[in-house]
Amino acid sequence: MSKCVISLDLPEDIVVPLRDQYELLMWSGRDAMPEATLQNWLSDAEGLLCALSSPITESVMHAAKQLRVISTISVGVDHIDLNAATRAGISVGHTPGVLVDSTADLALGLMIALTRRIPEADRWMRSGQWSQGWQSDLLLGTDLSDSTVGVVGLGPIGEATVRRLRAFGCRILAWNRSLKEIEGVEIVPLDEVFARSDIVTLHTALTAETTHIASRSRLASMPTGAALINTGRGLLVDERALLEELAAGRLKAGLDVFEVEPLPSDHPFLSLNNVVLLPHVGSATASTRLAMVTRALENLHAGMSGERLPFCANPQVYGLSA
Ligand code: DGY
Fold first, then answer.
1. Which CATH code fits 3-98+286-318?
2. Is 261 among the residues known to form the active site?
3. Ligand 1 proximity of 231 Cβ (cutoff 6 Å)
4. What is the structure's pLDDT at 134?
5. Ligand 1 centroid vs 75 CA: distance in angstroms?
6. DSSP 3-state helix, strand, coil percentages of the chain (rounded to 5)?
7. What does the alpha-carbon distance between residue 14 and residue 11 come to, in Å, rounded to a whole number?
8. Whose CA is nearest to atom 1 of ligand 1?
């Protein structure tokens, strides 16, 4: 039987059928699997099923001489050294398509949470402060329908976000790496998205080019009172610069992703009222997670059988262009 490593704790009903097909080693802790253990387990494995919690570095792959397929339960592949995988002839599978709606829903959720101050109002009520009934000036927010929203990246999740924003009646600006036209969307240069929007929402993959795409100067160009929404990756944002803008009370933010995850318990974001924080749950609905696992298993099985992966993040491994 070929050997397969699972570097995260998955429910038994998913794992049981795999046990008939592969010799399995599964990490059972909730903490991320240590790199040394992963290297050790992969030394004679042909397949790896993983997620964002396991960085798959060149040195991990170097130790895995028989590895043929890495299948990640995520659409993002920034935790995997794709170039090193391609050089080593390892195909990398991911899960595009299935988490588009869940993630776009959450981006909208964060926008409404911020503009209508939902978490702040919830905290206020729970602290027993609602003693005077309806008041005309209580917890006033702003209307999403009245806002200009800038969408950075028009891949499937960016487009799904645009569809939702259109239904809300927002003015929509957008920037995309390659030119794209979408009805009801004004395509503008990246700097303009930041300078002209009441809300900027990030939907690009994390690459060397998009790291800190929400840079200090772009954040500084955002209008006072504007909000940044990030459901992509923490490193898309210059977090230090964002923190300064938030601490000064100039910007607001809704963040599902962070430079360091889990967010350290003493992180200054946690003490600010103008930031809504979520623990990387953009795709966290039961049906989306099931669809992601199903897609990841399709990739794993294909790779273990020496076939092309149906959802391959490094088609160069088959001599195809990206
Ligand atoms: C992904 O799939 O890349 C998300 O960030 C996790 O669901």
1. 3.40.50.720
2. yes
3. no
4. 96
5. 5
6. 35, 15, 45
7. 6
8. 74
Task: State pLDDT tens for residues 140-190.
Answer: 999 999 999 999 999 999 999 999 999 999 999 999 999 999 999 999 999
Give the number of other CB atoms < 10 A from CB of residue 260: 10
CA-to-CA distance for 169 and 68, rounded, in angstroms? 48
Spans of all domains in the chain: 3-98+286-318, 100-277
Each residue of 241-294: pLDDT tens digit?
A: 999 999 999 999 999 999 999 999 999 999 999 999 999 999 999 999 999 999
- Does 3.40.50.720 match the CATH number of domain 100-277? yes
Q: pLDDT category, 320, cuts 50, 70, 90? A: confident
- DSSP class of residue 312? B
What pTM value is reported for the model? 0.96
The residue behind tokens 């391609």 is 86
Name the one residue in this structure whose structure tokens are 């097909």: 21
Other Cβ atoms within 10 Å of 195 Cβ, number: 18
